[in-house]
Amino acid sequence: MTSCFETFTVHNHETNEVCQIDFVDGLSDNHLEFVTKEWTPILRDRWERASLTYHALPSKKQSERTWQEKQRKFGAPDSHWNWYEKNQSMQGSVHRIFALLNCEVVEALMRVDLSTPSQIQHATRTPIVYVEYLAVAPWNRPAIQSRPRFKGFGTLLLGAAVSLSFEEGMDGRCGLHSLTQSEGFYIHAGMENLGVDKTCGLKYFEFSPDAARKFLEP
Questions:
Q1: Residue 5 contacts by C-beta under 8 Å, 6 or more apart in sequence?
Q2: Distance CA 218, CA 213 (A)
């Protein structure tokens, strides 16, 4: 079941036209099929290019950091994400999945978990909106398309997660583990960097209530 929360007017940089983008809660089978057919082949191709470039390096230059850099360069660190599985594995009211739609074209996706405790206020087990997965369509990534179709959708979805936190009585608290290439974006957004989580090897970021309010300011 898909419900439209809001419609945004945005600029399409490919066509130089104004478009209406719907922010929806939930995904239909048609949306998931679109992602599989339109997103996955592009991302898989970019991952293969990154892999070829990485393995062409001398062995002494091959490292986890270098591999992350290659994936960032080619714009496909999430090529292994299966959105069918992510949609099917949601647990009742604990998880929610959101999308930005240009008619039936899926432009961005986000899944959140509402059962995760804050790490800023870890001792009190204060709940937050935890962003499990956030991705924009390949054609909206500068690393893949030099002139992305749409810009700012990552910021828009992060703002939606913060707004949901306020709606759920969590005072704007929102956290996530960042892919390496996105760390600068979350720092710029005002999220606190709590360091590398040894369980996954990624840095964890979280909004405090004050930072969340500032982020939503016009």
A1: 23, 24, 25
A2: 10
Give this prediction's pTM: 0.90
CA distances from 212 to 24, 70, 96, 171, 193 (A): 22, 32, 20, 8, 14
What are the φ and ψ backbone dihedral angles of 58, each rounded to 5 degrees?
-60, 145
pLDDT in tens, 143-167: 999 999 999 999 999 999 999 999 9
C-alpha angle with apex 83: 197 to 139, nearest 5 degrees?
95
- Angle at Cα 137 formed by Cα 132 and Cα 139, nearest 5°? 150
| Distant-in-sequence, close-in-space partners of 43: CB < 8 Å, separation ≥ 6 | 76, 78, 79, 138
Tell me the per-residue pLDDT of 108-128, one tens digit each, with 9 for 90 and over: 999 999 999 999 987 678 899
Distances (CA, A) of 40 to 110, 131, 139: 16, 21, 12
CA proximity to 43, closest of 82, 89, 7:
82
CB of 111 closer than 8 Å to CB of 135: no
Nearest to 109 by CA among 28, 215, 212: 28
